Amino acid sequence: ESLDFLVQETVDKAIKEQGLDALGQPQVELLQLAPLSLKAVVPLSPVVELGSYREVRLQAEAVEVKPEQADSVLVQLRQDLAPWEPVDRAVRFEDQVTLDVEGKVAGRTVVNDKGVEFVPTKDNPHPLPGFSVYIEGLNKGEAREFSLKVPDDYADKSIAGKECRFNVKVREIKEKKLGDLNDDFAKGVGAGYESLEALRQKILAGIKAEAEGVARRRFQEQVVEEVLKGARVELSPLHIEREVDHLLQEREDALKQRRMDMESYLKNAGKKLEEVREELKAEAVKRLTRNLVLTKIAEVESIAVSPEEVDKEVGELSASAGQQGEALRRAFSSRDGRASIQGVLLTRRTLERLEGIANGTASQPSAPAGPTTST
C-alpha cells in the first residue's frame, strides 16, 4: 500500500515538473525497489485542429415515398393480426405446431419439452438447423424420429459436433386465418381507423418519417466525414491502445451474445489476439478522432447540455420503457449514467449544428470559429 502511494506521488510530481498536459492514467512500470526506480508512460492531451469546418457545404438528399410502399406494410399487418385457428391437415411451413420433443445425445437427454409451440420455417435454426424440415408433412397425433448434427460452435461444448436423436409428436396444428383488407380491418388496427385509406395514409406518413430520419442521419455523417477531412488530430499511442481495449471488450460482449468466447473465435478465424488488436487500431483511431473533433466543435460553438435537459431525457426514456422504466431511471440516476445521457445529447446537438452549417441555416457562434487548435 505504501508503494502504491509512493509511486502515484512520484509520478504526479514528475508530470508537474515536466509541465506535461496529461490526459488519463499513466502506464507505470516498476524497474526496481531499492532504490525505487520506475518508468511512466504518460498519455498527453491530443492535439485537435478543426480547420475551416464552417466552410463545409453539402446538399441533403430528397426523400420520396411512393403509395405502393404501404402495401407491404398492410400485408404484414394482415398477417400479424390474423388469429391462429386449428386445421385438419399435415404440417406446412409457417404453421403453429404444438409438439412434444425429446432429444438425446449419446443416450443423454438434452431436450425434453411437452406441449411446446413451434413455427417451422425453412431457415429456422432452432432447436437445431434442419429441425423444421422433419416437422413438415406430419399430421396431428403422428410421431417421427430423426437425427441432426449439433453445430461445432454450439454453446454446450459437451455435445457440439455430435449427433442428436430427436423423437417428436404433433399434438396440434394451427394456421393463420387472414382477414380481408377493407374498412372493417382498418377499424381493428391499433386504436382504429375510419377506413382502409386512412390507415394507408397513416402508414405512408410513418414510412416517410422513418425515411427522413434515415436520410438526415446519413447526411449528418456525410457532413462529419467532410469536417474530419479538414481536421488534424494527434493521438497518444497509449490512448489508442486503451481504445483498442474497449473495442476488444465490445467484441467479446458481442461474441457472448452468439454463445461464443474469444478463444473459440480466434481459433475459427485462425488468428492470434495480437493480430486482432492490430486490426482494431484503425477503428480505434477513427473513433477517437471523431469523438475528439465533435467535442472540440461543441466547445467552439458553445454547445452545452443543462442538468434539467438531462432530467427531461431520462424521464422520456423511462416513460417509453414500460415496465422497465423505473429500473432505467435508477440506472441513469447515477453519476456515470447521467454523464452518458449528457454525452448523447451533446453529440446529438453537435451533429444538428454541423447539419445546419452544411445547409447554410446555422447561426454564427458567439466567438469567431476560424481554424481552431487544441493542445
Could you please describe the fold and organization of this structure?
By secondary structure, this protein is α+β, with helices and mostly antiparallel strands. It is 47% helix and 17% strand. The chain is built from 11 helices and 10 strands. It has helices spanning 2-18, 69-81, 131-135, 183-187, 196-230, 237-257, 262-269, 273-300, 307-319, 325-331, 335-359, and strands spanning 27-32, 37-41, 47-49, 84-86, 96-105, 108-118, 143-149, 163-176, 232-234, 373-374. Strands 4, 5, 6, 7 and 8 form a 5-stranded antiparallel β-sheet that branches. It has a 3-stranded antiparallel β-sheet with strand order 9-3-10. A hairpin with a 2-residue loop joins strand 5 and strand 6. Helix 6 packs across helix 8 (273-300). The two termini are 35 Å apart. The model is unreliable at 368-375 (pLDDT under 50).
